[in-house]
Write a structure and sequence with these properties.
The chain has 10 helices and 4 strands, in the order αβββαβαααααααα. It is mostly helical and 208 residues long.
Length: 208
């Protein structure tokens, strides 16, 4: 369950933080733990939102609360994990730009809404080439938000797919975007999918 305060946060509030992380051609320019000065985001994220996201910092000697001054990519990962664990948000609210209905009207048969799921499973397996392809299709076909696309690009282009917390986040994203009937999906896409699905299931068992 999300705290009452955190329940007021929108996904867009968290993804806005990605703007300050140095990412070049999809890759992090610094480590996942590198602390980036927060001042450049002051005009984009108000202090009340930051307090909800990160909580109050320790008080200074004069009794005033310190402002959050830095952010890392790992901080964003942890915020997304916290958000997804306490949310009933659907994959469409995260990723889609209203294009699924357009695709259905012109007879697209590939289950396009599962591109995010396929991306997560490929990333968890460590198949970065496949993951990049699914991400590119997700951005072009489904209309992934630019911030979300940039964040996921950093995950697979850097890459960060062996990091435990990143894997937890990928697993949570897979949970909310998985097919309604995995057995049918498995029969359709065969053994390659089964291997990835087994990895996903193993990761799911690790989540507390």
């Amino acid at each position: 369950m999300k705290s009452k305060a955190f329940s007021t946060v929108e996904l867009s509030d968290i993804l806005r933080l990605v703007e300050i992380i140095p990412i070049d051609n999809g890759k992090l320019k610094k480590s996942i733990n590198a602390k980036i000065p927060f001042k450049d985001l002051e005009n984009n994220v108000d202090q009340k939102t930051l307090i909800v996201l990160f909580g109050q910092e320790e008080a200074t000697a004069d009794g005033k609360n310190k402002k959050k001054e830095t952010i890392s990519f790992r901080d964003v990962v942890r915020l997304l994990i916290k958000f997804l664990k306490g949310s009933d948000i659907k994959e469409s609210k995260i990723a889609l730009g209203g294009r699924l209905e357009e695709l259905r009207k012109i007879g697209i048969t590939y289950p396009a809404q599962y591109l995010l799921f396929d991306f997560c499973l490929a990333a968890l397996e460590g198949d970065h080439l496949d993951a990049k392809l699914y991400l590119a299709h997700g951005f072009q076909i489904l209309g992934l938000s630019q911030r979300f696309n940039l964040f996921l690009s950093a995950v697979v282009y850097t890459p960060l797919t062996e990091d435990e917390e990143v894997r937890e986040l990928l697993t949570l994203l897979a949970v909310i975007s998985q097919p309604a009937d995995a057995k049918v999906y498995l029969e359709l896409y065969g053994e390659d999918f089964k291997k990835r699905y087994d990895i996903f299931q193993n990761e799911l068992m690790k989540i507390k």
